[in-house]
Amino acid sequence: DAKTTQPNSMESNEEEPVHLPCNHSTISGTDYIHWYRQLPSQGPEYVIHGLTSNVNNRMASLAIAEDRKSSTLILHRATLRDAAVYYCILTPRGSGGSNYKLTFGKGTLLTVNP
Amino acid sequence: DAGITQSPRHKVTETGTPVTLRCHQTENHRYMYWYRQDPGHGLRLIHYSYGVKDTDKGEVSDGYSVSRSKTEDFLLTLESATSSQTSVYFCAIMLAGGSEQFFGPGTRLTVL
Hints:
The structure holds two protein chains of two kinds. Chain A is mostly beta strands. In chain A, 0% of the residues lie in helices and 46% in strands. Chain A has a five-stranded mixed β-sheet with strand order 1-9-8-3-4, with no helix packed on it. A four-stranded antiparallel β-sheet of chain A has the order 2-7-6-5, with no helix packed on it. In chain B, strand 4 and strand 5 form a beta hairpin. In chain B, the strands form two sheets. In chain B, strands 2, 4, 5, 6, 9, 10 and 11 form a seven-stranded mixed β-sheet that branches. Chain B has a four-stranded antiparallel β-sheet with strand order 1-3-8-7, with no helix packed on it. By secondary structure, chain B is mainly β. Chain B has no helices and eleven strands. The termini of chain B are far apart. Classes of the chains: A mainly beta, B mainly beta. The interface between A and B is medium-sized, with 22 and 27 residues.
């Protein structure tokens, strides 16, 4: 399975943008890039995913490098509620849930300062 | 919230006793998953199911079994609990479209 590399921790100030990097140099052409986050004492929650093009949703933006060997999750205005562990995960494109088994690394612990 | 519940939410048991955790969903999703999470680690997949009576192993399946006799329930059983199985257990479902897993609130299991 293709691996991802993320910084152990990052710090941000409230209402400032946050750029969370992820390296995945061994990504295959059929791997999707997913981001999940886990708030304290909760289960993970889906944030965003993409394949080649940049993606936006109400929670965040995902910027994918042209060679797809890295990506960046962008939180446009961090709030205290965004303090969480953020996981960058690769999933193979395919049919059905048997191909959708999430492999979590240790993620990046984001601290948001008021 | 995709109608997913886990029971019990907390359990303390003794080494050698059997334990069953239940994951219940109300929206007829086909794929269900069991993960465990230990301090300082990300989640690790134990077992998953792709339909009634259809299950498969994940990366840390030793010591665990699962059953899915109805679409809505996915049971995780520890036949003889050990202290190394002290963990937080999360159930998840795959939402329609196949691009997002939704997680339950978790069960904190302590094996003494």
